[in-house]
Q: What sequence folds into this?
C-alpha cells in the first residue's frame, strides 16, 4: 500500500498549478469562486485553451487519439488541481462521454467527423436522455425515430436538455422499436441541433437560473449515418457511457474548494461580537463536513486505485455519487447559513465584472443562497440518489 | 386543555384560505413578486377591509381585540399560499413595537392607522455586524437640543420601501453590545439623511439597506413615555418573539402545503409502471415528512399560546424552542419536497422550490435554529 502520488503525477500537479496560476483567465476563476460555471462561448474558449496545452481537453484520451496519454492517477490529479485552483470543469459531455462512445461504437466516418472536433473543443454537446415521463425509468423513453429511407424521422420531446441552448450537437436515445422489452428498441443518434423541426424551450430552475431546456422534435430528419452502434441496441451504448462516469462523480476536490471558501466566510462573518468561526457550534459543523469529505476522498481513491484500478470499479461507484452530492449540498447550505441575514438579498448582478454600485452585504451574498438552492439538483440528476441506492442494494448487497 | 378553534376562528381561517385560493393563485403570486412593490396594493386594502390588519390589535387602539391565535391562523394561510406582503413588517413587527414600546399617545395615534391600512411600517433592528444578537446595536442616537440625531447602518430591513414610517433601534448610551442604552425611534421614511438601497430577497420578498447619516427626529419620536430612554431591549425581544411566532406559523403552513402537494404527486406520478407512492422507500420518507409537519404544528401552538405570558423567560423559551424545531423540520420538509418531486421539483414554474426558498429565508430571520438552540439553553440555565 502507498498513499502518496507517483513522481509523474507530482510533476503534472506542478504543471497544472502553474497553468491555473498563470494562464486560466481571471473571469473564469471568478465564476468558479462564486460557485458558478462558465458556459457557451466561454466553454469553447476554455476547451481550446486546454487543447493547446497538449490535448488536456480530453484528459482520458491516449496520445494516438491526440490526448495527453495520462495514467489514471494523472487524470485524477488533473481534475483535482483544476478544482483546487479555481479553474472551471472540463465539459463532460464531449470528451468524457460521447467521445469515448464514438471511439468504441462509432463508424469510421463518425470517428473522422467528430473525434478531432471534440478534441479541439469545436463542438459543444448536450445529452438527450430524459423525457417528461421517463426519468428514473429511463428505458421507458418514447421519443420515436422512424426509418424513412436513409434518414430517421424524430418525433416527441426530451426533457432537461442541459446546455441545449449552447450545444451544437445532441447525443440522444430514441425509440426505434416498441415490440419487446423496454431496453430493446432504443437507438443512439447524434443530432445536429440546427436541424429543422427542433425547438427548445428554456426551463428555469427555482434559484432563477437557466441551464436546462425542454427539446421538441417535430419530424426532425437525421441521417442513418449518425447512428451510434446498432439499431435497437442503444441501451448497450448508454450503459457504456454511464460506466465512464468514474472520475469526479463525487466532486471531492470541488467540495474541498467550496469548503475552503466557507471557512474564509466564517472567518469574515461577525457573530456574538467576534467571528463566526469562533462560534463552537458552527465550527463543529464545518469540521464535521470536512471529515465526512476526507472519508469520501479516501473512499474514492481506494475504489479508483484498488486492485484492478478504475476499470475494476463496479456499482460501488454509486456510493461516491450519493455521498459526494450530500456533502456538496451540506457545504452550500452551511455557506448560506454562515451569512445570516445576508443570505437573503437577491442581487446576483453584483457579482458581475464592472458592477459599480455599492454591493449589498459581503460578496458571497450574491451567490450563497442561490448555490444552495441550485445544488438540490445534484441528488436528483445523473440517476437520483434513491436510484443509486437501489443499484447498490441490488448489485453490491445482492438484495 | 382544548386545542380546537372557536367557531369565529374557524370562519376567520376559512376566509383567509378563500382569499389565498381565489385571489392569490401561484401564477398571480409569481407575477406580483416579479414587479415592484412585490405585492398588490388592492390586496392590502382588502386585508384592512376584512379586518385582518386589526385582528390582533387591542380594541382600545382601533383593533378587533383578537388573540395571538388569529395571528397564527393568518400566517399559516399566508405560508400555504406563499403570500408576500408587508403584513409581517407592518403589523407583526412595526405595530407590536408601538404597542409594547410606545407611549399611550403614540399607540392612540398610530395603531388605528395601521388597523385601517393607512400606515405601513418597517422595523429596522438588525445591523451588518449584529447577526442575530438583538443587543448588538451600533447605530447611535445622540441627544440634541430638541430631539436626537441618528447615525448608523441597518441591514436587511423587511419592506422598508413601502413603509411610511420606520421603527429604528439606536443607542442613546453604552457600548455596541450593551443590553442597556437602546431606544426605539419613529423615523419618517423620507427623512433627510436617510439613504435606502432597496432590493428583492431570494423568496420574492423585499428588503433594504438603510443608512442613517445625521437623521434628525424630535424627542416625541422616541417610542415610550418620558423617562424610558435606553430601556428598549426587552421591547425588541418581545417584538421579535411575536415575529418568531408569526414566521413559525407561516413556515408550518408552507410545510403542510409541501406535504400535500408532494403526496398528491407521489400518488399520480408513475415510473417503472407504478406510482412513486407505491415504493416503500418513498412511503417511509413521506411518513417522515408528515411527522415533521405535525411536530412543527405543535411547536407553533407552543409559541403562540405563550406569547402573552408576563414572564419574558417563559415566553422566550417557547419562542426559541419553536423557532428551532420548526426551522429544522421545515428545512427537511422543504428539501424532501424538492427531492421527491425529482427534476420537476427543481423548476421555477412549480411552487415546490419556492416553498424551500421561503422556508430558508424564514430560518435566517430572527435567529436561525442554531442561534435559538443556544438561546434556549441560556434561558433554561
Ligand atoms: C437541473 C437538471 C439537469 C438535468 N440535465 C439532464 C440532461 O442534460 N440530460 C438528461 O437526459 N437528463 C437530465 N436531467 C434529468 C435527470 O436525469 C432526471 O431528473 C432524473 O433522472 C430523475 O427523473 P425524474 O425527474 O423524472 O424524476 P422521477 O423519476 O419521477 O423521480 C421522482 C422521485 O422518485 C424517486 N424514485 C423514482 N423511482 C424510484 C424507485 N424505484 N425507488 C425509489 N425512489 C424512486 C426519485 O429518486 C425521485 O426522488 C436533469 C435534471 C435536472 C434537475
A:
Amino acid at each position: 500500500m502507498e498513499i502518496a502520488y507517483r513522481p509523474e503525477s507530482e510533476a503534472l500537479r506542478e504543471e497544472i498549478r502553474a497553468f491555473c496560476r498563470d494562464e486560466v483567465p481571471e473571469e473564469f476563476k471568478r465564476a468558479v469562486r462564486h460557485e458558478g460555471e462558465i458556459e457557451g462561448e466561454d466553454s469553447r474558449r476554455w476547451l481550446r485553451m486546454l487543447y493547446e496545452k497538449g490535448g488536456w481537453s480530453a484528459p482520458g484520451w491516449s496520445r494516438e487519439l491526440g490526448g495527453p496519454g495520462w495514467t489514471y492517477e494523472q487524470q485524477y490529479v488533473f481534475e483535482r488541481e483544476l478544482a483546487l485552483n479555481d479553474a472551471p470543469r472540463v465539459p463532460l459531455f464531449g470528451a468524457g462521454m460521447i467521445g469515448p462512445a464514438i471511439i468504441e461504437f462509432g463508424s469510421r466516418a463518425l470517428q473522422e467527423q467528430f473525434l478531432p472536433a471534440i478534441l479541439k473543443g469545436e463542438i459543444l454537446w448536450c445529452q438527450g436522455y430524459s423525457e417528461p415521463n421517463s426519468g428514473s425509468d429511463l428505458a421507458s423513453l418514447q421519443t420515436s425515430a422512424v426509418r424513412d429511407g436513409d434518414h430517421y424521422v424524430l418525433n416527441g420531446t426530451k426533457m432537461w436538455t442541459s446546455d441545449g441552448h449552447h450545444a451544437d450537437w445532441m447525443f440522444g436515445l430514441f425509440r426505434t422499436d416498441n415490440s419487446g422489452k423496454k431496453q430493446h428498441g432504443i437507438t443512439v443518434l447524434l443530432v445536429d441541433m440546427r436541424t429543422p423541426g427542433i425547438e427548445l424551450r428554456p426551463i428555469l430552475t427555482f434559484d432563477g437560473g437557466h441551464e436546462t431546456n425542454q427539446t421538441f422534435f417535430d419530424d426532425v430528419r437525421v441521417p442513418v449515418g449518425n447512428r451510434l452502434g446498432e439499431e435497437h441496441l442503444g441501451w448497450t451504448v448508454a450503459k457504456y457511457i454511464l460506466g465512464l462516469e468514474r472520475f469526479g462523480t463525487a466532486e471531492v476536490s470541488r467540495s474541498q474548494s467550496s469548503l475552503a471558501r466557507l471557512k474564509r466566510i466564517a472567518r469574515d462573518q461577525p457573530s456574538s461580537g467576534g467571528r463566526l468561526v469562533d462560534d463552537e457550534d458552527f465550527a463543529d459543523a464545518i469540521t464535521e463536513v470536512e471529515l465526512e469529505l476526507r472519508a469520501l476522498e479516501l473512499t474514492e481513491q481506494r475504489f479508483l486505485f484498488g486492485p484492478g484500478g478504475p476499470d475494476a470499479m463496479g456499482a460501488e461507484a454509486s456510493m461516491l455519487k450519493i455521498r459526494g452530492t450530500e456533502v456538496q449540498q451540506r457545504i452550500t447550505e452551511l455557506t448560506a447559513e454562515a451569512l445570516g441575514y445576508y443570505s437573503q438579498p437577491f442581487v446576483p448582478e453584483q457579482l458581475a465584472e464592472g458592477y459599480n454600485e455599492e454591493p449589498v452585504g459581503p460578496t458571497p451574498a450574491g451567490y450563497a443562497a442561490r448555490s444552495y438552492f441550485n445544488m438540490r439538483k445534484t441528488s436528483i440528476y445523473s440517476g437520483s440518489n434513491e436510484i443509486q441506492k437501489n443499484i447498490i442494494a441490488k448489485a453490491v448487497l445482492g438484495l | 386543555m382544548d386545542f380546537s378553534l372557536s367557531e369565529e376562528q374557524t370562519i376567520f381561517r376559512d376566509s383567509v384560505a378563500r382569499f389565498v385560493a381565489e385571489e392569490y393563485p401561484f401564477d398571480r403570486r409569481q407575477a406580483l413578486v416579479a414587479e415592484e412593490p412585490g405585492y398588490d396594493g388592492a390586496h392590502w386594502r382588502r386585508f384592512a377591509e376584512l379586518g385582518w390588519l386589526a385582528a390582533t390589535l387591542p380594541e382600545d387602539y382601533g383593533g378587533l381585540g383578537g388573540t395571538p391565535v388569529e395571528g397564527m391562523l393568518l400566517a399559516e394561510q399566508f405560508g400555504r399560499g406563499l403570500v408576500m406582503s408587508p403584513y409581517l413588517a407592518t403589523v407583526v413587527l412595526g405595530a407590536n413595537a408601538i404597542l409594547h414600546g410606545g407611549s399611550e399617545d403614540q399607540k392612540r395615534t398610530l395603531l388605528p392607522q395601521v388597523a385601517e391600512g393607512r400606515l405601513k411600517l418597517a422595523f429596522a433592528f438588525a445591523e451588518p455586524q449584529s447577526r442575530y444578537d438583538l443587543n448588538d446595536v451600533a447605530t447611535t442616537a445622540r441627544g440634541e437640543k430638541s430631539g436626537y440625531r441618528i447615525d448608523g447602518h441597518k441591514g436587511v430591513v423587511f419592506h422598508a420601501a413601502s413603509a411610511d414610517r420606520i421603527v429604528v433601534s439606536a443607542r442613546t448610551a453604552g457600548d455596541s453590545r450593551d443590553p442597556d442604552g437602546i431606544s426605539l425611534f419613529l423615523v419618517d421614511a423620507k427623512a433627510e439623511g436617510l439613504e435606502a438601497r432597496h432590493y428583492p430577497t431570494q423568496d420574492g420578498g423585499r428588503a433594504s439597506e438603510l443608512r442613517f447619516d445625521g437623521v434628525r427626529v424630535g424627542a416625541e419620536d422616541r417610542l415610550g413615555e418620558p423617562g424610558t430612554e435606553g430601556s428598549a431591549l426587552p421591547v425588541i425581544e418581545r417584538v421579535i418573539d411575536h415575529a418568531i411566532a408569526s414566521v413559525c406559523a407561516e413556515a408550518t403552513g408552507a410545510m403542510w402545503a409541501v406535504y400535500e402537494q408532494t403526496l398528491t404527486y407521489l400518488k399520480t406520478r408513475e415510473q417503472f409502471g407504478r406510482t412513486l407512492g407505491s415504493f416503500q422507500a418513498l412511503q417511509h420518507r413521506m411518513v417522515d415528512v408528515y411527522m415533521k409537519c405535525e411536530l412543527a404544528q405543535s411547536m407553533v401552538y407552543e409559541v403562540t399560546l405563550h406569547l402573552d405570558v408576563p414572564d419574558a423567560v417563559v415566553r422566550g423559551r417557547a419562542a426559541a424552542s419553536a423557532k428551532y424545531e420548526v426551522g429544522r423540520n421545515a428545512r427537511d420538509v422543504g428539501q424532501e419536497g424538492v427531492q421527491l418531486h425529482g427534476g420537476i421539483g427543481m423548476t421555477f414554474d412549480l411552487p415546490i422550490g419556492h416553498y424551500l426558498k421561503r422556508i430558508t429565508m424564514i430560518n435566517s430571520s430572527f435567529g436561525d435554529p442554531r442561534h435559538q438552540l443556544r438561546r434556549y439553553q441560556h434561558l433554561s440555565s
The first strand of chain A starts at residue 125 and ends at 128. The beta strands of chain A are 125-128, 144-148, 151-158, 169-175, 186-192, 198-204, 210-223, 227-228, 270-271, 274-275. Chain A has three domains: 7-90, 125-231, 249-396. Chain A touches chain B through 52 residues (CB under 8 Å).
